[in-house]
Amino acid sequence: MAITVTVVDDHPAILAGVRAWYAEAGRSIQVIAAGTSVDVAWTAPGDQADVVVLDLNVGAERMPYQRAVRRLVDVGRKVIVYTMQDSEEVALTCLELGVCAFLTKSEGHEHLVAATIAAAENRPYLPPTLAGAIAADRGPAQPRLSDREREVLTQWFQCESKQLVAERMRITPRTVDTYLDRVRVKYANVGRPAPTKAALLARAIQDGLVGLDDL
Q1: Are residues 115 and 40 in the same domain?
Q2: Segment 86-95, tens digit of pLDDT
Q3: What is the pLDDT of residue 215?
Q4: CA geometry: angle at 190 spanning 184 and 196, to 5°?
Q5: 152 shares a domain with 130
Q6: Is 121 domain-assigned?
Q7: In whole angstroms, how large is the CA radius of gyration of the chain?
Q8: Which of 102, 136, 170 is the last residue of a domain?
Q9: How many folded domains does the chain comprise?
């Protein structure tokens, strides 16, 4: 089944390039809507897309990027930020807001294609800029996780679904959910919320719970 994408960007050359990269990808990826404002994500067929690729500086209103990202994430959209900004602070803020991945436009088409496939399959993806930002940011307070919580967490990062985690560990998907909910609560309690899989992966890497080799 094809992955459908809405692209929000105000540079015609970028839009043309993204369309071409997806068309040449080994996996079927289709841009079904594109525009210069986040409003395109709510205009048919944009509201049917699996993934939204978002530039942070678009739209005539020039809304703060935090508002644009939150608006998409809060309704369950899978968002990939694709921007010229290379600020570690912006990258981490976007991750905390719930984006699936943060890429700079200098990182090349391979990373955008790979991040799009990962987002559609509910898998985290760490391009170089995001990995560097995560590695440079050490959380001030680490939650105390049990060995079992760490094990479930690592398995979840390696699997496409909680069902696969359950099968590997011979537990129920509901038990997987329970462990992951406990981990999220513990992170929230130390002031480091992790609402999404990508954000939770960032926290785990920051705290040395998992390494890139584990993925």
Answers
A1: yes
A2: 888 888 888 8
A3: 62
A4: 30
A5: no
A6: yes
A7: 17
A8: 136
A9: 2
pLDDT tens digit sequence for 187-212:
887 778 888 888 888 888 888 888 76
Q: How do residues 114-134 score in pLDDT, each as one tens digit? A: 999 989 987 878 888 777 777
Whether residues 10 and 74 share a domain: the answer is yes
What is d(CA 189, CA 23) in angstroms, rounded to the nearest whole number? 44
Segments forming the whole domain that contains residue 165: 147-214
User: Pairing between strand 29-35 and 101-104?
Assistant: unpaired
Q: What are the C-alpha distances in Å from 8 to residues 20, 38, 156, 166? A: 16, 6, 30, 37
CA distances from 167 to 61, 149, 159, 163, 164 (A): 48, 16, 11, 6, 5
Average pLDDT estimate for 63-70: 82
| Contact (CB, 8 A) for 129 and 103 | yes
Element (H, E) at 104: strand 101-104
* Residue 46 burial (CB count, 10 A): 21
Query: Do the domain assignments include residue 141?
Result: no
Strand 3-8, strand 51-54: pairing:
parallel
Do the domain assignments include residue 142?
A: no
Residues 54, 88, single domain; the answer is: yes
> For the domain that residue 14 is a member of, what is the CATH number?
3.40.50.2300
Looking from the CA of 68 toward its CB, the CA atoms found within 13 Å total: 25
Q: Which phi and psi angles does 148 have, rounded to 5°?
A: -70, -40
Separation CA 213–CA 114 (nearest Å): 17
How many CA atoms are closer than 13 Å to the CA of 47, on its beta-carbon side? 5
